[in-house]
Structure formats: structure tokens, C-alpha cells
Amino acid sequence: MLLPHSRRRFLACTGALLWAGSMTDKLQAATAGQDYQIVAQAPLPGSSVEVLEFFSYACPHCAHLAPLLEPWSRKLPAGVIYRRVPVTFGHSQWSVLARAYYALEALHEANRLQEKVFTALHEQQINLFSEDDLFDWVQKQGVDRNKFIALYRSFAIQSKVQQGDQQAMSYGVDGVPTVIVDGMYATSPSQAGSNAALFTVLNELITRELTLKKHR
Predict the structure, then answer these.
(1) CATH code for the domain in which residue 100 is found
(2) Buried b (16+ CB within 10 A) or exposed e, 174-202
(3) How many domains does the chain contain in total?
(4) Taking a C-beta distance cutoff of 8 angstroms, is the pair 179, 186 a contact?
């Protein structure tokens, strides 16, 4: 379901403001163990900062966060790499959705359909856990059905799902949404206190790591 123009514009502005808020007092007060967890003692190598969003289309909290994450991620500064990682936590139904994400990503359709998948599941009550219903829905969105199915069932996509689960396990991710900054910090809306506070914490961590990497 497409959002009204005024609503889309509001969310886009909100995303910009969420990043612009990185200099606020609250941001400067982000505290390890309270607003975020340290999951590694060293950042990832290289000059860029990687931001991983662990999520599932099945998660209602992820659905609520998605309209804010999308505009925020588009405003990230140079040197920041943002990636989504769908997780399954061993649930077969979640595996269907994780494979669907990677198949859409391979077809360069994931960004366009990200919020639409959440809407279909959580608002329109379309059973995207069913492969037949999923394939029908994807086709209705203008995606080549045969190409999608071939990718969805491919070994490469299944491997990506397994790698995503392994990565989540390595960072100690036990719930979604969870965001990992540069392999070192983990936070979530529940830990930060709210969706808005999450972005405040993320902005600080990203700014901190970008600054440190410039001087290493």
C-alpha cells in the first residue's frame, strides 16, 4: 500500500531530522550497557563503517521501524555501508521470508518493495508464509515470477540465509530489530528506549567510528 504523498514527505523529513539530531545532548549521553551493548573489542577493518540491520518481515516491531529506517539510511554520510540481514531464528516460516528478501535483493527490487512486504503481511493479512501466495503477490508487484522463484529456490540464496543466521549468532542477536554498528556495537529500539532514541544512539556510534577511523 503506497503512503499518501504528505505521509511519505513527512517520513522523509523525519529521516533527515533523525540523522541531523546526531549532535543533540541525548546523543552525547549514549551509554554502553544502557543504550547499546559492546559485542566486540575492535571495529571491522577498513575505512568504512558497516551498519547491519537484523530483521524479519514477520516481526511487527520491524514493520513499525521500517518507514523510519528507509529515509534515515538514505541520509547516511559517505563512508557508511548499510545492509539488511533477514534472520530466521530456526523458524521455517521466517526462512520463507528471508529467502524472499534475498531473491528480491538479487532482482534489485528489495528497496522498492521493503515496506510493501510489511504492509502485505501485517495490514493486509496476506499469507506470505505460503510460497504459492508469496509467488502470486510478488508477480502482482511487477516482479518476474519465474526469475523470482528460480532465485528463491537456489542454493546461493539458501546459503545467504544460513550466513545471515550465523552472523546474527556471532553477534549474539536474539531478537529483532537489532542494529550492529561496525561489528562492535549492538542496539535496538527496546534498548535505546524508543524508535526515535535508536537513531540518536546510532548516529553517535556511526559518527564516533567514522571519526576514529579517520585518525587510525
Answers:
(1) 3.40.30.10
(2) eebbbbbbbbbbbbbbebbeebebbbbbb
(3) 1
(4) yes
Residue 86 and residue 101 in contact, taking contact as beta carbons nearer than 8 Å:
yes
Encode the chain in three state secondary structure: CCCCHHHHHHHHHHHHHHHHHHHCHHHHCCCECCCEEECCCCCCCCCCEEEEEEECCCCHHHHHHHHHHHHHHHCCCCCEEEEEEECCCCCHHHHHHHHHHHHHHHCCCHHHHHHHHHHHHHCCCCCCCCHHHHHHHHHHCCCCHHHHHHHHCCHHHHHHHHHHHHHHHHCCCCCCCEEEECCCEEECHHHHCCHHHHHHHHHHHHHHHHHHHHCC
Q: What is the pLDDT of residues 143-201, one digit of tens each?
A: 999 999 999 999 999 999 999 999 999 999 999 999 999 999 999 999 999 999 999 99
Q: Give tens-digit pLDDT for 14-34.
A: 444 454 444 444 445 689 999
| Domain interval for residue 189 | 5-214
Distance in angstroms (rounded) separating the CA atoms of residues 154 and 176: 26
Pairing of β 49-55 and β 178-181: antiparallel
Which single residue is written with the C-alpha cell 518481515?
57
- Count CA atoms within 13 Å of residue 176 on its CB side: 24
> What does pTM read for this prediction?
0.87
CA–CA separation, 201 vs 178, rounded Å?
12
